[in-house]
Amino acid sequence: MSKHNKVELDSPIGVIEILGTEDVVQSILFFEKEKAHENQEEIPAVLLDCRNQLIEYFQGVRQTFTFPFQYSGTPFQQTVWNSLIGIPFAETASYRDIAITLQKEKAVRAVGNANGKNKLSIVVPCHRIIGSSGSLTGYAGGLWRKEWLLHHEKKVKESRLV
């Protein structure tokens, strides 16, 4: 059994906890605490790479992620999460859009459920999912974070067009 490692990151929208093994990142989640804990033990390179790429994302210099990660979910959930990765930076889609992409038009609720179980925040961009009406819908990290992330991506994209 692989040892689980952890590193935390102070981000503009709160503390992010990154969990994984020596080889892959398994979880990137927001935690409601004041400050990130400084890890005193040796941190695997993959977790440091993830943290550095997230820092670059928040700085507006990174739009995609290249470190290895691993899903933990059903085959259907993993299919949904793969579809989320296909949503371009600074763009949005609805649960219905994803269901149609998967050729399961009636599975809108199942897509929403899978979206809510994503443990790889930002990297598997569930924050880019909005309601069919264009309204913000649930986000495990809090709607205020979802709104911040969408605004951040839009601002970064617009600054690159200038």
Which structural class is indicated by helix and strand composition?
alpha+beta
N-to-C SSE string, H for helix and E for strand = EEEHHEHHEH
Number of strands: 5
Shape: globular
The main pleated sheet reads as: 3 strands, antiparallel
List the helices and strands and how they pair.
Elements: E1 5-11, E2 14-20, E3 25-31, H1 45-59, H2 75-85, E4 93-94, H3 95-101, H4 108-116, E5 129-130, H5 143-161
Parallel strand pairs: 4-5
Antiparallel strand pairs: 1-2, 2-3
Helix pairs in contact: 2-4, 3-4
How would you describe the overall organization of this protein?
- It is a single chain.
- The chain has 162 residues and is α+β, with helices and mostly antiparallel strands.
- Helices cover 38% and strands 15% of the residues.
- The chain contains 5 helices and 5 strands, in the order βββααβααβα.
- The chain has helices at residues 45-59, 75-85, 95-101, 108-116, 143-161; strands spanning 5-11, 14-20, 25-31, 93-94, 129-130.
- The strands form 2 sheets. It has a 3-stranded antiparallel β-sheet, covered by helices on one side.
- Strand 1 (5-11) and strand 2 form a beta hairpin.
- It is globular, with a radius of gyration of 16 Å.
- It starts with a strand and ends with a helix.
- The mean pLDDT is 93.
Characteristics of this structure?
162 residues; globular; alpha+beta; 5 helices; 38% helix
Short summary:
With 162 residues, this protein is an alpha+beta fold.
